[in-house]
UniProtKB/TrEMBL annotation:
InterPro entries in UniProt: Asp/glu_Ase-like_sf, Asparaginase/glutaminase-like, L-asparaginase_N, L-asparaginase_N_sf
Catalytic site positions: T12
One of the record's GO molecular function terms: asparaginase activity
Residue runs in coiled coils: none
Amino acids binding substrate: S54, T83, D84
Pfam families, sorted: Asparaginase
Organism: Pseudofulvimonas gallinarii
Stretches assigned to the L-asparaginase N-terminal domain: 4-154
This protein's name: Asparaginase
Length: 161
């Protein structure tokens, strides 16, 4: 992998807590700082495309994500995305030729202690470098094709369908 293209769409991974509002808001993308803090040995660019909870991602947003990825010169793409509709977005990205695309996110905000964000990002980085072209989801220590996985909201994890 000569360079990793990272497209961010928001989601829990980028949520921050505002005490005065008692609410979560989507903040700046966290992945760039996480990768810098880890001292990764590859180059990357971050394209902050959306700042949305995935429940609010529209078909037009998914088309924008697809067009953005198609326009990138790099063949390795990591997408941070909210977990509720990650599978739907992955299915829209399926079929982009010549690119290995891995979607990941977090069930708890990256800024929170004990978040799964760093672990999921690490799995996604390993996956994007080792898998053949196609679209994949990296969550909970597993890699799935989008047609073979769903989010179990009750158990708050991803599982095979």
């Amino acid at each position: 992998m000569e360079q990793l293209c990272i497209v961010t769409t928001g989601g829990t991974i980028d949520k921050i807590y505002f005490d005065d509002k008692s609410d979560f808001q989507i903040g700046d993308p966290q992945i760039g700082q996480i990768l810098r803090d880890l001292g990764v040995a590859f180059r990357f660019d971050v394209i902050p495309l959306l700042r949305k909870d995935s429940l609010h991602v529209t078909d037009e947003d998914r088309d924008l994500v697809r067009r953005t990825i198609e326009a990138q010169p790099h063949s390795h793409v990591l997408v941070t995305h909210g977990t509720d509709t990650m599978v739907e977005t992955a299915q829209v990205l399926d079929g982009i030729p010549g690119k290995t695309i891995v979607l990941t996110g977090a069930l708890n905000p990256a800024l929170f202690r004990g978040s799964d964000a760093v672990f999921n990002i690490g799995c996604a980085v390993g996956a994007v470098q080792s898998l053949p072209p196609g679209v994949y989801i990296a969550m909970n220590g597993r890699i799935w094709h989008p047609r073979d996985v769903r989010k179990n909201r009750d158990a708050n994890r991803f599982e095979a369908v």
